[in-house]
Design a protein that fits this description.
mainly alpha; 3% strand; single chain; elongated; 2 strands
Amino acid sequence: MYDTGGSYSVCWPSTQDLYIAQRLSWLKAELDPEVQRRRLALEEGERGALAMQRPLTTEQAYRWFGTFLGLLPPFAFFNRTFLSVDGGGPFWVTLFVAMNVTCCLVGRWYGGVLGRWAGKQRGRGRLWFVAAVFAMALGWSLVTGGLGGALFFGVGAAFGFVCALPVAFVAFPVFAFLHRLISRGGMIEARHTWPLAFGIPLTIAAMIMSPWIV
């Protein structure tokens, strides 16, 4: 229909026609197969999250992961590289314990920061996911390794970053992939979190302590 009143040209669509066009555009977008697929995936994830008994958010899961990643691999590295060589003098033991505690606390804090950011990126494509995982690994290495190593008279910050980088580049992709696979609606069962958050850092620590690893 067109407005034939004197105040508007007969060539202009009426308000009713505009509403119809907007509704048709909305309906076309809603019926798009890609939109339908995303909606079904989101609804399935939300149902899975509601069925969990002890759900943890992405931030909480990454916080626990960062805690153990900052605790176990550095402990194995200090035990094998420094304490075994120096003989475990009181000064060095105190210094390395302080560095280990710092890595653990900073890793826990920054793991939560990364988890909160990762939770906001849910639903993005696979290429973005891969890039985000390695960006998180790089950031965690820089912050955790740098601050933990800085206790070694300041010059250890760069050394800590270099040591943390390969650990993070191995651990973060494994954890992020398994977390994405198991989680539902951004939530993951607590009983599924511990094998990932604790098991992956423990495995890396065992590899560092292994006599077959130079």
